[in-house]
Write a structure and sequence with these properties.
Rossmann fold, alpha/beta
Length: 256
């Protein structure tokens, strides 16, 4: 059964790999056998992770990429391919989640969220698809969505709109790319503990939020490992495309 999730001789690119879920996803894919291109805006933030993964006997290469800039995305894929060869897996994970009340939100704040979380994901998926087609590989594009594609909360209107758009983009691309042997799926995490939100979940407000989750706990990055490896493996999920896997402790089914 372990062979179902064996990614040996596969190359993966992870965006947003300098921190949070992207950094974790890179480690998971590497442990499963993939060579990994680590993409983010700051190369120095990636170098320690690249050294860690290479110590585990997998190739890892830092790639400078700003997902909001199509030319930067293309250059990043160039760097990844030069070092590793064609990409088979792309974890389209880069994103931001600034909190601001809608009446106070500036146009610049709105544009930044949409340009990173939706337009950036589109740019990465388009570049990945073009190169997978050119290389004639069976590809898997895995978008990081959110339960806020399906429900809302205060202060995250731009984030919710972008993630809802990303879910529909996932479904649309799955139809367009299926005949080219490229699968496009998404993971929709609920609340996942990271360094960015750890302090908040230690507050009374964070505790109240945790108690609204049916499992009564915040998820860990490791809770996403199974979904990531399932979607990355052609053998495990070769007949899955256009799917959105929710990993949220039952949060979507809880009352608002």
């Amino acid at each position: 059964m372990q062979d179902l999730f064996d990614l040996s001789r596969r190359n993966a690119l992870v965006t947003g790999a300098s921190s949070g879920l992207g950094r974790h996803f890179a480690r998971v894919l590497s442990r499963a056998g993939a060579n990994v291109a680590l993409a983010a805006r700051r190369r120095e933030a990636l170098e320690s992770l690249a050294g860690e993964l290479e110590a585990g006997e997998r190739r890892a290469v830092p790639v400078v990429m700003d997902v909001r800039d199509g030319a930067s995305v293309a250059r990043g894929f160039d760097q990844a391919q030069e070092a590793l060869g064609a990409m088979h897996i792309v974890a389209n994970n880069a994103g931001i989640a600034p909190v601001s009340a809608f009446p106070d939100q500036s146009e610049a704040e709105w544009s930044e969220v949409l340009s990173t979380n939706l337009h950036g994901a589109w740019l990465v998926a388009r570049e990945a698809a073009r190169r997978m087609i050119d290389a004639e590989v069976e590809g898997s594009i895995i978008n990081t969505a959110s339960i806020y594609a399906f429900r809302v909360t205060r202060g995250l209107s731009g984030y919710a709109a972008a993630k809802a758009g990303l879910v529909q983009l996932t479904r649309a691309l799955s139809v367009e790319l299926a005949s080219r042997r490229i699968r496009v799926n998404a993971i929709a995490p609920g609340y996942i503990m990271t360094d960015m939100n750890r302090d908040f979940f230690a507050t009374p407000a964070g505790d109240a939020m945790t108690r609204r989750i049916p499992q009564r706990r915040i998820g860990t990055p490791e809770d996403l490992d199974g979904a990531l490896l399932l979607l990355a493996s052609n053998r495990a999920s070769g007949y899955m495309t256009g799917s959105v896997i929710t990993v949220d402790g039952g949060h979507l089914n809880s009352p608002l």
